User: What shape does this take?
Amino acid sequence: MQALSLAAAQTFEWITLPEATAPGPGEALVEIKAIGICGTDFSGYLGKMPFIQFPRILGHEIGVQVLSVGNGVSHLNPGDSCSVEPYLNCGHCHACVQGRTNCCETLSVLGVHSDGGMRDRMILPAHKLHPAPGLSFEQLALVETLAIGCHAVNRSGLTATEDVLIVGAGPIGLTVLEFARLVTSQITVLELNPKRRHFVETHYPGTKVVDQLPADPQAQVVFDATGNAQCMAQAFQYARFTGRIVFVGITKEPVPLDDPLFHRRELTLIASRNAQSSDFPRILDLIATGRIDTNPWISHRADFSQLPSAMADWIEPDSGVIKAVAIR
Assistant: This one.
């Protein structure tokens, strides 16, 4: 079985893995059909993702087809098309017992902490597969990305009367926008890249898009989707008195905190990590019913066999990538 391994920064190698065996109890054997490429993959490819160690098989945004299931699996059948929930949690730590499986103390994310979907086939826990007849494999590969924004908006406690500022209109910022607009129409997006501003203006009419803001309170809820420490620190300036700030992006750099401002405005800082199992069927339903349109998202495609050269192209600043997908 063929797989694509990231052996070192910007160095892919084709490797041969043992063929996947028959699934055991509670497992499913799946064929990988589509792989979404996200910021984590690009950071890992560049050697900048602290949670990815080499060598690693990337790929956590996956659309798959079930080949066979093990004993005790009742919600799946061979031939089913599924989205993959790539968060492998222990089920018994403090976070898991609370139902917060997205931040399990020993969480292993496929393609990040453990090998992921850049391969032909793999065996997965069946309960991490979410079937969705009628959706394309490309759509299924986008569900995990959308789940990041879904969870972030859930974490924020956003209400219909509140206004929102989203800093960064990359793929993660766009997922936040998708779910924020289901709650409120009072949304501003701050983005420096003119191509990304144009994308938001074209596909999200009614959303205010700007390339700069005064350093004054701007919104009751501020989402930072940049993963840039300087931008994340600036988010405190943008939040209104009693406002809430949600860090969706992640950085390994220290984020300065203006403590007097933080206290004077009595702000709330919220971290948002991954997503929860319940987010996946909700997103599948939103796509199936047309309330989320994934068609504009995929700006770049490549055959799985061409992925090494495609990744080298997609990391270029002028590539214009909104969302890239590898197809098998």
About this structure: The chain has a mean pLDDT of 95.
